[in-house]
From TrEMBL:
Organism expressing this protein natively: Devosia ureilytica
Superkingdom of source: Bacteria
Biological process according to GO: cell division
GO CC terms: cytoplasm
Gene field: zapE
Presence of keyword NAD: no
Pfam families reported in the protein's UniProt record: AFG1_ATPase (PF03969)
Record's keyword terms, sorted: ATP-binding, Cell cycle, Cell division, Nucleotide-binding
Statement: the UniProt record of this protein carries the keyword Nucleotide-binding: yes
Recorded GO MF terms: ATP binding; ATP hydrolysis activity
Protein name per its UniProtKB record: Cell division protein ZapE
Length: 383
């Protein structure tokens, strides 16, 4: 994910202090320690950069010891990952949500098994999936929200990451749980333990023990919905946006979704701002909304229109959007042209809209705004 914050002199800590100086962040010693660890990875990656010969790597890059950063929700892990990814001066880097990455791996394995080569008894589907990744020269893989609850993933991770690490890929991951807590009480967990040992060997495990849930503070006591179409509504949304981003105005970006790019008018500090037409009057579907919900912890949605029969398609997309945000626990601030009970004026979507209205009502409650993100992972293929 691109960041509105430009890393200063390729240093996570310098970029962090710049945000503090601008008032976008409150200084936190735990976040400073984490920024230093990220700078260590950054420095090692730069110093171990391999030479290219005729467009190819001269030899496999040495795998730099990465970082596994864990802590409770709202402590700043995503913000620090933003700064780190922005600061790394390499083209051969990728950032993706853990479940989306594993979804891609499973899809690649399934496709290989259907191929002529995949029908050989000695075929290795994991090696087949890893080969193009390494051939691309990938040096850094950043995985957000590393969390293993699926046996298909649990049984695959050791083989997958052994090959990635051997090929010179460095892992930086964020998680809500310590490595020893991954796949806790899972079926055949003893078979998963070698991966935990590998993870500890190839990354520095660092805690982010901040006492404050900054995400929750942004929404405490706030009216997150505004109604009407006058200038005061836009002013209210502008103020809410700056509160969520700590005063950062934001900049345009994109969300990658199944080989496509979804434009984001504004993004900053883990939040995104869209107009209703950007999401509900464009050819987007469930998968796109799930990607958006996994990429941002907060979303501002401007100018939600009344959805009568002339906006039937927009109504269906709006229902899917709210379902995706709600299932994930994303915080929503929005402006509506009409009161909530008047939003859905099309009897063809009336039943589905009742659930949406119920969710919208809950999403403005203190209880919902005080909770962390939920692990609403995309369905994964079986291994």
């Amino acid at each position: 994910m691109s960041s509105s914050t430009t890393a200063h002199k390729n240093s996570v800590l310098a970029a962090y202090h710049e945000l503090v100086a601008r008032g976008a962040l409150t200084p936190d010693p735990a976040q400073v320690d984490a920024a230093r660890e990220l700078d260590r990875v950054l420095s090692d990656l730069v110093s171990h950069k391999p030479r290219r010969v005729f467009g190819f790597f001269e030899k496999p890059a040495k795998s730099v010891r990465g970082l596994y950063l864990h802590g409770e929700v709202g402590r700043g892990k995503t913000m620090l990952m933003d700064l780190f990814f922005s600061a790394v001066p390499l083209r051969e880097k990728r950032r993706v949500h853990f479940h989306e990455f594993m979804d891609e791996v499973h899809a690649g394995i399934a496709a290989f098994r259907k191929s002529p080569r995949g029908k050989d008894d000695d075929a290795d589907p994991v090696a087949a999936v890893v080969k193009p990744i390494l051939k691309s020269g990938l040096r850094l893989l950043c995985l957000d929200e590393f969390h293993v609850h699926d046996i298909a993933n649990a049984m695959l991770l050791d083989r997958l990451f052994s090959k990635l690490f051997a090929g010179g890929v460095t892992l930086v991951a964020t998680s809500n749980v310590v490595p020893d807590g991954l796949y806790k009480d899972g079926l055949n967990r003893q078979l998963f333990l070698p991966f935990i040992a590998l993870l500890k060997e190839k990354t520095v495990v660092a805690d982010l023990p901040s006492q404050q849930d900054y995400r929750r503070l942004k929404f405490a006591g706030q009216q997150v919905y505004a109604f009407g179409s006058g200038p005061e509504v836009r002013i209210a949304m502008d103020k809410m946006w700056l509160r969520i981003t700590g005063g950062e105005p934001g900049s345009p970006g994109v969300v990658e979704s199944i080989g496509r790019q979804i434009p984001v008018p504004l993004m900053a500090m883990g939040a995104a701002r869209f107009g209703f037409s950007d999401l509900c009057e464009k050819p987007l579907g469930t998968r796109d909304f799930v990607r958006i919900a996994h990429q941002f912890d907060s979303l501002v949605l401007d100018d939600v229109q009344q959805m009568d029969r002339t906006r039937s398609d927009a109504a269906k997309r709006f229902i899917l959007l709210i379902d995706s945000l709600y299932d994930r626990g994303v915080k929503l601030a929005a402006s509506f042209a009409v009161p909530l009970e008047q939003l859905g004026a099309d009897d063809r979507t009336a039943f589905e809209f009742q659930r949406t209205l119920s969710r919208l009502t809950e999403m403005q409650s203190e209880e919902y705004l005080g909770k962390g993100l939920r692990d609403a992972a995309p369905a994964e293929s079986s291994q």
